[in-house]
Amino acid sequence: MEDKFSVSALVVGLAREGIALSRFLAERGAQVTVTDVKPAESLAEGMAALAHLPIRYAVGGHPLELLDAADILFVSPGVPLEIPLLVEAQRRGLPMSSETRLFTRLCPAMIIGITGSSGKTTTTALVGEMLKAAGARTWVGGNIGRPLIGLLDQIQPDDRVVMELSSFQLEFFAPWSAGTRTRAVEGTSGSVLFDPQGWSPAVAAILNITPNHLDRHPSMEAYIAAKAHLIHYQRTGDSAILGLDNPITRRMGETIATRQRVLWFSLEQEVEEGAFLRGETLILRLAGQERAICRADEIQLLGRHNLSNMLAASLLAAAAGAPVEALRQVARTFKGVEHRLELVRVRNGVRWYNDSIATSPERTVAALQAFDAPLILLAGGRDKHLPWEEMAELTWRRVRHLILFGEAASLIEAAMRRSRPSAPSPCQIHHAGRLEQAVELAAALAQPGDVVLLSPGGTSFDAYRDFVARGEHFRQLVAELG
């Protein structure tokens, strides 16, 4: 029997998750009100998708009086917890959750959760393919693909669910106990719509943690704490998978509670239990048994960072029950995910790559390290209050032409000037304004044998809905070149 929820739910934010969640709740009898700071004309597409449902809207702001009738709030990722509406909700002790957290409450299948500052999308996709190769009916979602809440009725207990989880989504995995109204909220069939206790999945990985999203989190400590929620509430026998090569995740594993099984992956050293690189072979070592996954040169993904992603994915899939044969099959055949070092076109001997997912300088560094050919780098977008110096230093060494676009152009150029080496560098800096002009300039500058790489280092929000829209526009621009 489909569960019904006799509650008044306030959904904060009408983006991708807000639309899916509003539909899910309204179809199950909840009284749904949606509030968004954007005006109605900017939300027309989402409101049209929900037009057949009895949903009320308060847009163009977040009036505090909405809290008077709310039994529970569902907050979209990226909505700062510091906005007045949410501060007041916490003061009143109102239950607060999210689409992702609700899905984990109601999902009947094993959940494999994956987070990290970089690599989590590729790792999530890899784990999904490995579990499918092992014969498991597998669902992949969270911060990748469409929200899973709309698929809940199709998921069976023996299935596997692989979730990429951002720091914003993980904020609601912590306990919420702000006041007397923070209590369990149940559906008509007894399922729990809200539980104030913290929660972590049975199999979870924190790949790495480096500075990111500091335009949204109040501090690096808050960002780390949000990531740590993924493993902090695991139970006895659960598996916590951590990157040994990253100092923050290594410290997490060394201080973790003994109730979990801690598994490591590393490119730099062998581990007692986990996955590692020995010479040029990827090794899985679990329960005293050691198996070779494949050779590094059999993996089709570019860059050393993807060897680390492959180790993490293999370990996650194995912890969720996949045999090494399934890991090996996917490791040898997986060609990558859209907008991640994606080869778009070869034109006049020049290879054009789309790495629009690179929304931090660290990701751009990983992309630059994946190539030996002469590079023309397209970088820019919107800054996330992250350091650019490492990217700038590598750009001087590896890039022939740096083409800057978007809001962060002058910021990146300033970092380049501060990092300029004493030895001569072939790198020339250009400004293009928008991505269209950047592509045109790159086409004019490129020579046979070059790689033109879109790896921005900043978010897309100065000009695009998300990194996917930016990557798709880049593809279109490159395809239209004569």
Fold topology:
Layout: E1 8-12, H1 16-27, E2 31-36, H2 44-49, E3 56-59, E4 72-75, H3 84-92, E5 96-97, H4 99-106, E6 110-115, H5 120-133, E7 138-142, E8 160-164, H6 167-170, E9 185-186, E10 192-194, E11 203-206, H7 220-232, E12 239-243, H8 247-254, E13 261-266, E14 274-278, E15 281-286, E16 289-295, H9 304-319, H10 324-333, E17 342-347, E18 350-354, H11 361-368, E19 375-380, H12 389-398, E20 399-405, H13 409-418, E21 428-433, H14 435-445, E22 451-457, H15 467-479
Parallel strand pairs: 1-2, 1-4, 2-3, 4-5, 6-8, 6-11, 7-8, 11-12, 12-13, 13-14, 18-22, 19-20, 19-22, 20-21
Antiparallel strand pairs: 9-10, 14-15, 15-16, 17-18
Helix pairs in contact: 5-9, 5-10, 11-12, 12-13
